[in-house]
Amino acid sequence: MKPFSYVRPADTRAAIAAAGESGACFLAGGTTLIDLMRLEVMSPTALVDLGPLPLTAIERHGDGLRIGAMARNSDVATHALVVERYPLLAQAILAGASQQVRNMATVGGNLLQRTRCPYFRDLAVPCNKRAPGTGCAALEGYTRSHAILGTSASCIATHPSDMSVALAALDAIVHTRNGGRERAIPIGELHTLPGERPEVENVLEQGELITQIELPASPFAAHARYVKVRDRAAFAFALASAAVGLDVADGRIRAARIALGGVATKPWRSLEAEQALVGQAPSRASFERAAAAAIVDPKPRPGNAFKVDLVKRTIVRALELAWGMS
Amino acid sequence: MASCLPVVISRFVDMSSMETPIAVGMVAPSFVLHGDARRPLSSSEARGRPWVLAFVRRWTPGSDAGAIRAQLRGLGAILVIASDAGVWSFRPDDEVELSAGTSPRLRRELDDLGARCGVDPGEDGVFVVDEDGIVRFAQAPSGELTSALAGALEAAGRELLGLPPRSGITRRDWAVMSLVAGFGLVLFQGCRGRGPERPAPVVAKAGTEVDVVLRINGQDRRLRVDARVSLLDALREQLSLTGTRKGCDHGQCGACTVLRDGQAVNACLTLAVAAEGAEITTIEGLARGDQLHPVQAAFIAHDAFQCGYCTSGQILSAVALLRDGRAKTDDEVRQQMSGNLCRCGAYPNIIAAIQAARREV
Questions:
Q1: Strand pairing of A252-261 and A268-269?
Q2: ipTM of this predicted complex?
C-alpha cells in the first residue's frame, strides 16, 4: 500500500474541504477501497475518514424514506421501515457480500463500489479503467463475470453492487454536497457508461460527498423480489440478478420496475421491459415478453454468451416470485 | 443500583421545587421542553401511558428508530431522549419528533429537568415511569454511560426476551420491563459507532505516524501507527494479540473477524487509525478468567474445528450472530456465517456448536 495522508474531519464541511484536492478520496466502510489500495489498484494521496460523521440516520421523509450515506448496509437491510416499505432493498443488500462486509459497507460507498473484473485488480495486465489507454485484457480473456449490456470497446466490466440494482428499481435520488452546492441526482444519472473513458464511473466531482439517499414512496412493496444467480449460494457476485416490482390493480399491471445486475456496466434499469408489462395481466407469458424486451442489442463475449438467456430467465423468475407464483 | 420494587403513590406533581432527586417509587417530575418542533414536548402527554425519559448525551437517531417504535407500539408508551444534539420524542403511533438542541432555553430546561432527576449535565440516566406516573426504574450513574447501566439494561432485556410473562407478574410490571429492555435497544444501537469517545479530528501527513488509542477488550491501548496499518496487523504485531488470524488479507475468508461495537467486521479491511473510538472485541476478550465463553465451550464440545486457523473468526462471528438473534434455522446460520471459510470443512460441527450455544448465551 502506498503512503497517504489520513484526515479525520470534525464535520461534513471539513470533510468536503479536505477531499477537494486531486488525489484525495473519501473513506467510508473501506471494504472496497482498502482492498484495492492493498493491491495498489487505487493509490489515493489522502484519505478523508467519514466514519465519525453523523450521516447514519434512516428517517421518514414525507411518504418516502431518507437514508444517511454512512448508514451501514446491515442496518439498512434490517430497518423496520425498509423491511416494510422497501423489501426489495433489504433483499438485495442481504444477497450481497458477507455479514462482516455488510456491517462495514455503507450505502454511499456501495453506490460507488468498484468492479470485480479480475483484470482491473491485476496490475500485470492492461486495463483501461485502472490505467487509461493501456487496453482491455478482458475482451479476449475469461469473461464469465463480465457485462453484456452497456459495454464499449474499452471496457466490459460489470458494476458489482446488488444494493444499487434495487435502488435503480426504486427510483432512488442521491443527495450530494460539495462546498455550498447541493445536488439531487436521480440514480439513473449517477453512474456513467464506460464509452471511451471507463476510468470515469459517475458524475460526481472531486470532493463531492454523497450525504443521503432518498427513496420516494413506492407502490411495489407488496410485489417485489430480488433474485440473484451466482456460482455459489452465498458470498458471491451475481452472474445475473433482477430487482423487480409490480403494482397490480383489477388484475392488470399498473406499473412495473425492472433493474438488472451482473450483466451490465452500471445498475441497469429496463424501461422497455417495464413498458411491456403495463396494462398486461400478470402471467408467465407476459413476464417472458417483458424479459425479451429487457435485453436490447446485447454484446456478449464467447465466455458470457450464456448470460443473454440467463438474465431473461432471472427476470421471469423474479416476476413470478414477486407475483406469488411458485 | 436502584431497586425496582413497585410502590404506587399517585400521579404527576410539579417537583421543580423539591430537593431530592427522583427514585423508584416516587412520582415522576413534570416537564415542558421547548424545541423547534411544532409543539413543545410535555409530560402531560404521557398521562395514563407508561413512558421512558432518557438522558443519553452521545445518542443520535440512527437506524433504530423503526425498531424503537415497534417496541413502544405494543405498550402504547412514549420515549423521550435528551442528548447533546437535541430532544427526541418517540410516540408509538407517530413520527419521530426532533427538536434541535441549540436553543439556550431548551438547554436550560434540560439541565433543570436533569437536576430534578439527579442527572448532572454531561451525565447519562434512564427513568421508566408507569401509567400511574410512578418511577419504576431509575438509573442515574455518574459520568459516562457506565457498564453497570448497560449491564442492567441487558439483563432486563434478557429476562424479557427469554421468558414468557409469568404468573405473578402484572401487566404493568411487564410493560415496565419491556420498556427497560426496549430502551436497552436504543442505547446499544443509537450509541453504536460512536464508541466510548468520539475520536478527535486528525490530520496525519503521508509517511508520518499517528498516536492512537484503541479500546480493545475493555482496555485502552495506546500505540503509534502508520496510517496504512490495518487493525489486524496492529492487533497481531503491536499488541501481541495473535488470536486474530490473518488469512487472505482481503476480506474474503473471515479469519480476522473481530467485533466492532458488537458487530462482526473484517479487521484486515479496517485501518487501525479508523478504529479509534470503537469498542473492539477479539477472541482474547471473550472468556471471563478461566471460564470460556459459551460459544468457545460449544466449539470444543462439538469438535467444531480441525486445524483451528479459522476458529477465532468463526467464534466471533457466531457470538455476533447469537447476540443479533435473527438467524435461527441452520440455513439462516449458514447464510450469516458465509463470510467465514473453513478449509478443513468443519461446517456441520460449527453449525451444531452455534445452535447448542444459542441455549447458553
A1: antiparallel
A2: 0.97
